[in-house]
Design brief:
Strand content: 15-25%
Structural class: alpha+beta
CATH architecture of the largest domain: Distorted Sandwich
Largest sheet: 11 strands, mixed
CATH class of the largest domain: Mainly Beta
């Protein structure tokens, strides 16, 4: 009856672990998904009113992007990493694709589209302008005149427009070889009196991020104000605030919208006081807006303000460079490293350096595993010595269990005494596992948040280390025309993980408690189900670590062989002791 009760208890506990994990993991530990990123869906954006009252866009029906792009005059953007156009109507950067990144791992996959014009599905754009009293400022329908027909890192362009009062507005746009635009806004007052005008910049986005925001990965509105990163912002909070918006007064900083891999950000002068915030002008129509202090410009004088606009991939070294060299405050925090940033960035650095040497991130992960296990070798040696000691005293433990099977308190006392006499610690085996948890979680975050891991192949069928294993056993590795749900999507790597854990547990000392035996017997296969939806790179790390552990255990057990104790003698001794 006791064995049956323990078996039922083990099954119930295992089921709770298996199903309970599935219930909470999506909230607290979002698993990797196939890295297919597309910005689509949504409706027309209405231009906000940042600070003062720039006119709103005229509502139009949603049209195809190709049609919208043909409706207005444009300037070509052509850099090593970016391609697109600037809309001369409204002076907007509203058409941008990232040359270096594709939507899927397929060879014919189109490049990632980041920005789209108003009137097209999922419009997403940046605009820059002026507001003020006594100023006929250009609006969203103003058609600017351009010098030059192409924006490149070597050839900036100047957009200009003159109002009826003789006030000339110029917007000089430059771009570097990566993803950073520099916007210089000038107002030349050719009128008869002084004017007060305030420059502004905005990013308008239709729809929420396709990458879900969670406890471990923030997506959506993000900003740094007064040297503090704000991860508390969300699309839901902006919806609640509506057109009134969520406002921040800051000196410098930056704000925008971030996906898991992509970012748009307005970056004012680091020393300039700004008013910034997020607002919603319609359901799922969001805007990040910043405006500087008003400039009072006398007749015949000019005023100018410079800000930057980032639109591109959240590459780790690039964000660090902009932060350190250009003084963009805390720009590296655009990547949500989380609590273990102090460990995650070094792990990424090691992976990146090894990748530069070997040219394969999968191999780099395996080498990282060897490095981690090497650093932990002394701790592991202590663990395995204790486990070898546990194996050595196991015959005596069985004898005590047989002798005191009807007296549990006495059995625990005798076991504790035996541990002290033999100088073994049954909990020593937990230490290496506890030490590895931060490393394992840090690698999980690195695989999840760094674009350098996106679409990185390993070998054979593993074409994206940041996505789950695509070969599923239940559909016969793609021969059957269906995709199993993530809960049942057991791939080859997950199976190898289960087998490696089973082999590792087989080398461990057998638990005395029957329920523990049952749980340890089921745990490898439970973990196989739990880990199946996670990134392939994470499973490669765990499998490699398991096999290294097995090799180290086997070697150490040969150094500390278990003395053979005939089973018959153990039983006789137990019976004799019982009679006494």
């Amino acid at each position: 009856m006791d064995n049956q009760r323990n078996l039922i208890l083990a099954i119930v506990l295992s089921a709770l672990v298996l199903f309970g994990w599935q219930a909470i993991s999506n909230r607290f530990f979002p698993v990797a998904k196939p890295a297919v990123t597309r910005i689509e869906g949504g409706k027309e954006t209405v231009l906000p009113q940042p600070g003062a009252d720039p006119a709103a866009d005229t509502a139009k029906a949603i049209r195809s992007r190709a049609l919208v792009l043909r409706e207005t005059p444009r300037i070509v953007i052509d850099t090593p990493k970016l391609a697109g156009t600037i809309n001369l109507k409204g002076a907007r950067i509203d058409d941008l694709v990232l040359k270096a990144y594709r939507e899927t791992v397929a060879r014919n996959s189109p490049p990632i589209r980041l920005l789209s014009p108003a009137g097209s599905p999922a419009s997403y754009y940046a605009g820059f302008g002026w507001t003020g009293d006594g100023v006929d400022a250009p609006g969203p329908n103003t058609v600017w005149t351009a010098t030059g027909g192409k924006l490149t890192p070597q050839t900036p362009v100047t957009l200009s427009w003159v109002n009826s009062r003789g006030q000339r507005f110029e917007t000089v746009i430059a771009v570097d070889g990566d993803y950073l635009f520099t916007i210089t806004q000038k107002l030349i007052n050719g009128g008869t009196g002084a004017v007060a005008a305030r420059p502004y910049g905005l990013v308008s986005k239709d729809g929420v991020s396709k990458d879900p925001s969670s406890w471990t990965l923030h997506t959506g509105p993000i900003g740094v104000f007064n040297d503090a990163a704000n991860y508390d912002l969300s699309f839901a909070k902006i919806d609640e605030a509506g057109q009134a918006g969520t406002r921040f007064a800051s000196t410098g900083g930056w704000l925008g919208f971030g996906d898991k891999y992509w970012l748009t950000a307005l970056i004012p002068d680091a020393k300039a006081p700004i008013d910034a915030g997020f607002l919603s002008t319609a359901p799922q129509v969001y805007q990040a807006v910043q405006s500087g202090r008003p400039l009072v410009i006398a007749s015949g004088k000019a005023g100018a303000v410079t800000q930057r606009f980032f639109a591109g991939a959240k590459e780790v070294t690039l964000l660090d460079r902009y932060e350190n060299e250009l003084g963009v405050p805390m720009f590296s925090r655009a990547i949500d490293w989380g609590w273990f940033r102090v460990l995650e960035k070094p792990i990424f650095w090691v992976l990146d350096q090894v990748f530069r040497l070997v040219g394969n991130f999968g191999v780099a992960i395996i080498i990282l595993t060897f490095m981690v296990r090497g650093l932990m070798f002394p701790i592991a040696q202590k663990q395995f010595r204790s486990m070898a000691g546990m194996r050595r005293v196991q015959p005596k433990m069985k004898e005590l269990q047989e002798r005191h099977k009807d007296d549990k308190p006495r059995l625990q006392q005798e076991l504790l005494k035996l541990y002290q006499e033999e100088k073994v610690n049954p909990l020593a085996g937990c230490l290496p596992i506890l030490v590895q948890i931060p490393v394992f979680y840090a690698l999980y975050k690195v695989l999840m948040v760094t674009i350098e891991m996106r679409h990185q192949p390993f070998i054979l069928w593993i074409r994206d280390l940041s996505a789950p294993d695509p070969l599923h056993i239940l559909n016969l590795f793609g021969l059957l025309d269906f995709t199993p749900p993530s809960f049942l999507g057991i791939g080859v790597l997950a199976l190898l993980l289960g087998i490696s854990m089973w082999l590792q547990f087989k080398l461990n000392p057998t638990p005395m408690d029957e329920a523990q035996k049952q749980i340890f017997a089921l745990m490898p296969w439970i973990m196989m189900f739990i880990m199946a939806p996670f990134a392939a790179g994470l499973l490669i790390y765990w499998i490699t670590s398991n096999f290294l552990t097995i090799a180290q255990q086997a070697w150490l057990y040969r150094q500390y062989p278990v003395p053979e104790t005939p089973a018959s003698a153990t039983v006789i001794d137990a019976k004799t002791a019982k009679k006494k």
